[in-house]
Amino acid sequence: MADVNTVHFAPWGEGANMMTKAGQLYEQAGLFDMVEPGDKVAVKLHVGELGNPNYVRPFFLKQIVDEIKARGGKPFLTDTCTYYPLKRNNAVDHMETAVANGFGFAPFIVADGLLSENGVSVVSPDPLLSEVEVGGAIHQADAMIVVSHFKGHALGGFGGAIKNLGMGGVTKKTKLEQHRLIDLVIDEDACQACGACVDACWFDLPRIENDCVVIDSPECMRCPICSTTCPEGAIRLENREKLAQGLAVAAKGVLNTFAPGKVACVNFATDVSTVCDCAPIPGEMMGQHIGIFASQSPLSIDAAGLEFIDYKRLNALHNQDCHEQVRTLARIQEPGSLTPEVVRT
């Protein structure tokens, strides 16, 4: 495997067989060198929320699964339950969504169990989080390949390998703790008690008291639905950079459960939209397909990807600094580089 400061890149080509190029990329990057016979290999992915077409195409995942098998490994696809109540909120719905979106070619294990009860608490690498509760199946795996769709994210600015690990590799408990790093502020003078936020909330948490909205439940995940719904702008989400930092801290906690050299990453900068695959809508597209990245370091691979997209547009759109994730991961001493060498295939 190439060193952690190197990212290998296969540009998207309209006249190229991208499965062939992906195979060449993986060989050049030594992506599967870590797989030993008998290894249980977690292939960490995001199967896409039902209704959103912008997730990594299943045949690319099958290519990775087949190569792991060829090395004598035992691959399984995996992700964790979402905190929000859509079609990946529990293991049953999540598995059905995986099949519906084309991922029925390999075992799909929901890492944190039926209702996110299967988590293993590990020491948080930074005081920002009290602990990191890693999905049990991920914690038990011998190796992991993190396959991520590189795109925008409404709260984190962007989503790549760090977000896939930090939010996608943990239980609902740690997901909620990360989201609640954001501060929710209500402007009582601006609030007209119209109830739009009450109707919009997926969790039925806002309530109207004394002609003003109150949102004080510890179950509130600080999602942007109420703030974007409010016609008066009376609900604000502030200090969003804390969530980006939390993603990096949680990602480091997940990575710490593996032996050195037993995690590799692939980022697909295709169908790059302004919103995450978590949304049941495709969102606004940001341009043409860019290509595929491979690296041993989630820090390096995400830092490289940001240089290929219009991250300033995402910063402005989501009121976030996309580089906060990679800077934080570097600060807490995850191997990799903020300015990696990019080697084209």
TrEMBL record:
Ranges where the 4Fe-4S ferredoxin-type domain occurs: 182-210, 211-240
SUPFAM superfamilies: 4Fe-4S ferredoxins (SSF54862)
Record InterPro entries: 4Fe4S_Fe-S-bd, 4Fe4S_Fe_S_CS, DUF362, Fe-S_Ferredoxin
Entry keyword Cell membrane: no
Keywords, comma-separated and alphabetical: 4Fe-4S, Iron, Iron-sulfur, Metal-binding
GO molecular function terms listed in the Swiss-Prot or TrEMBL record: 4 iron, 4 sulfur cluster binding; metal ion binding
Highest taxon, organism lineage: Bacteria
Record-linked PANTHER family: ADENYLYLSULFATE REDUCTASE, BETA SUBUNIT (PTHR43687), FERREDOXIN III (PTHR43687:SF1)
Record's protein name: 4Fe-4S ferredoxin iron-sulfur binding domain protein
